[in-house]
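queue> pop job 88
queue> type: inverse folding (structure -> sequence)
queue> payload:
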């Protein structure tokens, strides 16, 4: 049969080509599903008669997703920080919530969240599905520290998973008056003359407090 094929429309970015003899459609350039998932080509078939006759047909092409996009953070922002009391108990909400976005679809866009570093003693728990960050242990400022820099990451669930760059969230632990003053010695001993005058120095008593500010 002396029929020739051509693309008559819908090939705006020249993503596809057609073999004029066989009618085989093939990829001609890079295809990005995120720029368009459905492509509608108009293919023309023409005979060699005089005058030639032709027909048109629509070809619906669905671009399938490939996991070619990294997840990105929506929250927290760069340099974000939160402050919580050192007396916050297990389950207390620290940050609501870590969020991300992925331009892929399906499992390639299903995201999970994780803490990759900075969570010494597992003081914090990040729900890998909801992104909610909560207290997971005793935050005692005096023994565990007053600043925790949590390095967060988002990972998608694609077969060849992609991950986001690291995003840090700084958690400041606020002091509470949870420590009593302690004397520097168990017992203080002093001698004083019975002839001592008023305001004569006898002994220096000292104590310390591990809390801060007015809590000391």
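queue> result:
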């Amino acid at each position: 049969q002396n029929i020739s094929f051509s693309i008559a429309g819908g090939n705006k970015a020249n993503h596809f080509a057609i073999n004029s003899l066989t009618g085989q459609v093939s990829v001609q350039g890079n295809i990005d599903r995120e720029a368009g998932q459905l492509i509608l080509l108009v293919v023309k078939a023409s005979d060699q008669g005089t005058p030639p006759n032709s027909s048109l047909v629509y070809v619906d092409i669905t671009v399938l997703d490939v996991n070619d996009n990294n997840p990105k953070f929506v929250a927290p922002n760069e340099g974000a920080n939160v402050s919580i009391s050192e007396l916050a108990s297990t389950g207390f909400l620290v940050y609501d919530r870590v969020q991300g976005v992925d331009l892929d679809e399906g499992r390639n866009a299903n995201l999970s969240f994780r803490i990759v570093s900075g969570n010494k003693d597992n003081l914090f728990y990040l729900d890998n599905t909801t992104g909610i960050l909560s207290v997971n242990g005793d935050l005692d400022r005096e023994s565990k520290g007053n600043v925790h820099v949590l390095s967060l990451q988002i990972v998608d669930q694609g077969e060849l998973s992609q991950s986001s760059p690291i995003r840090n969230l700084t958690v400041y632990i606020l002091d509470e008056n949870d420590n009593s003053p302690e004397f520097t010695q168990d017992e203080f001993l002093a001698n004083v003359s019975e002839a001592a005058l008023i305001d004569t120095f006898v002994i220096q008593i000292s104590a310390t407090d591990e809390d801060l500010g007015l809590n000391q």
